[in-house]
Design brief:
single chain, 103 residues, mainly alpha, 6 helices, 69% helix, elongated
Length: 103
């Protein structure tokens, strides 16, 4: 989503976010892929490079839709990854250096 919005011009960013959001709001994997395809076809005349990017990344972006609905909510967020990275950074700042196994 961030990469797509970064490639859109300032006037159309809200429209791009709204369009892409409709694909994420679909219930099933087939519906999400169909909506993604419609968005690409809608944007192609206006932003060919962006539509090509969406073509290339569609399978990766919508991969989470193949999981059960109960798991999707956790997969949509990057908060667990950011939390883990923050913990590593905090520990590194406190410890400073880590011991090596070689002597």
């Amino acid at each position: 989503m961030r990469n797509g919005v970064a490639r859109a011009d300032k006037q159309s960013r809200r429209v791009v976010v709204a369009l892409i959001g409709t694909a994420f709001a679909q219930d099933g994997a087939d519906a999400a892929r169909g909506q993604w395809r419609q968005i690409v076809n809608h944007l192609r005349p206006h932003a060919k490079k962006f539509a090509d990017l969406m073509d290339q990344t569609g399978a990766d972006v919508l991969a989470y839709t193949s999981f059960p609905p109960a798991h999707r909510r956790k997969l949509q967020s990057t908060k667990p990854i950011e939390r883990g990275n923050g913990e590593v950074t905090r520990c590194t700042a406190v410890i400073g250096i880590f011991p090596t196994t070689t002597l």
